[in-house]
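TICKET #2291
ISSUE: user wants both folds in one file
ATTACHMENT 1:
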Amino acid sequence: MEFVVPRFCCVIFALMTGLASGLELAITGPSTIERASGQTVKLECQFTLGPDDLAPLDIEWSLLASDNQKEDKVVILYSGDRAFEDYPVMKGRVHFNSADPKNGDASINLTGLRSTDTGTYQCKVKKAPGVRSRKILLTVMEKPSRPRCYAEGPTEVGKDMMLRCVSAQGTNPLQYIWEKISDSKLLPASAVLDPVGGTVNVRNASASVSGTYRCRAKNLVGSEECILHLNVTPPPNTAGIIAGAIIGVLLFLIILAVILVCCCRARQKKKYEKEICNEIREDVPPPKSRVSTARSFTSVGSHRSSLGSMTPSNLHEYALKPQYDKIPSSEDFDRPPSRAPMATPIFTAPAPAPAPRVAGPNLSRMGGIAVMIPAQNRDGSIV
């Protein structure tokens, strides 16, 4: 029994020596790679074959699942002197580095990297009886986008302000670096920097804080920068602003009061003129008419001539005519109206209607003129 163990150990050592002299992978290139999105990366996998490795050669690249319950995804496969792309997500973006991988170069190239390409890739070379594999961790990072620089808070002397620098895109960890590129090229003594948050706190700012600043955002795969022109001004004259506002309000009120007064006066004047136009003046007598006087004398003269020409032959014609030209006297107004005797029973002439009695002063105010008419009898003769 004491010789059995040494013989068994010799057999194991011989097998291990035989395997060592067969298929081997060369450790070339880094095992951890970081690249920016859109770039190209080469995953190294070099191997050597032994004289006893006579079986067909198989090369398999796969993306290992982060969860053990999920299956690994084969990216590209070389078998039977042909290459096969089995992963649709990377189809057209992955290919072997060598046109003939069986010569010992199983490396692959990935183009147009995306953030979803991040993961652990395994290169497995199989040639019976040997099998060798290698793992490479690939991290696809996104370079920072152009940051935005701005000042937060009042940019006045004696005030506290904050300078901010923000990059919307980029894979962490991001680092922000502030620097002043004008005047003394030194940040204010009271400035407090936060390289992770990208802020600069400035307390009790002075006029010397004014100038041009540059912020640079960077990570492991790239950097971008922005420029900020800062102008710190003296505080405004608050008392002058308040006084100007008060004066402006007073002027507005005065102008408004003047406009209201003018409108009220114009309205009252218009109302007064309207009342004057509608007023009736009763104490002013109407103007005298000379034409009516002349007509009165003419009518009297004609009446006299007609009376003088009356004869017994034409007397009955005047008796039949109604006495329209006779002006009634005051006695006629007191006496009740009577009808004149008819000349013939065939024709009846209506008596003139008595005129309304008008007092003497009223006749003068109405423009009437007193006319002397000779008295007549009922037969028409002058008394």
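ATTACHMENT 2:
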Amino acid sequence: MEILNNLTSPFPTFLLTGIPGLESVQAWFSIPFCCLYAIAILGNSMILFVIITQKSLHEPMYYFLSMLSATDLGLTVSTMSTTLSVFWFDVNKISLDNCIIQMFFLHGFTFMETGVLVAMAFDRYVAICNPLRYTTILTNLRIIQMGFLMILRTVVVIVPLLLLLKRLSFCRANGLSHSYCYHPDVIKLACSDTRANSICGLIGLILTTGIDTPCIILSYIMIIRSVLDIASPEERNKVFSTCVSHIGAVAIFYIPMVSLSLVHRYGRSAPRVVHSMMANIYLLLPPVLNPIIYSVKTKQIRKAVLNVLLTK
């Protein structure tokens, strides 16, 4: 009846989905999800804490890492409330306005993360290809400016995209595929013309991922060329090892994102549980794994974290 009441309603209510087909055991799925959320929040909070409190980490590389941890925290918190509400209490209704608010933070932090990954790639490029000018290029003021531009770009891209949703009519069964509001998922439920939304979404994608991905690739092409010019294999491995953590962060962000996009576009016949699990992997994998990767592969972060944990 709830779905029927949504037909042509000016104030539509969407129905969130937990694990399709496994609703009877959904509460048990909350246990691993709670663990993953806890790891993401504690891990990224720890990275932020050590970078803020340890003066030895007040360098451009770690400032960018703190930005990555902050966006991962935002990404985690933006979906945690609705996901756990669905799993624990079977509270699966969300209004369009609340959906738009959630999408603002969800997609906003996603776009910001791509920007941070570009900034980190640029940091590695300067450190390896132009080390003598590293401190003069990446000054504190310039890092602040880069952070501000990331936020500004995100707002400019996201706000028009979400405002266009307000003009749409939703006159179909408003059941979403995930436990949170995802823009392509919401758009599919509209029965009015969505061409403007699709065009705006495409422009937003070009201005974010469409620019950021080639920039990251170009940075690593230049880095690889510079590393290959180093005669000593030991020095070559040592220099390139400083990029391993960032390459891992790029991989765990882009691979799930591309996979989810392909499932949404071409996998309409796939079981709904596939959509649901892909969506959750896409959002939880980077915040969970990034702190682990940087703690394991970055000596200074590992040492700082151990100092905090072992200090009585």
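RESOLUTION: both attachments delivered.
EXTRA DETAIL ON ATTACHMENT 2: The CA atoms of residues 8 and 142 lie 50 Å apart.
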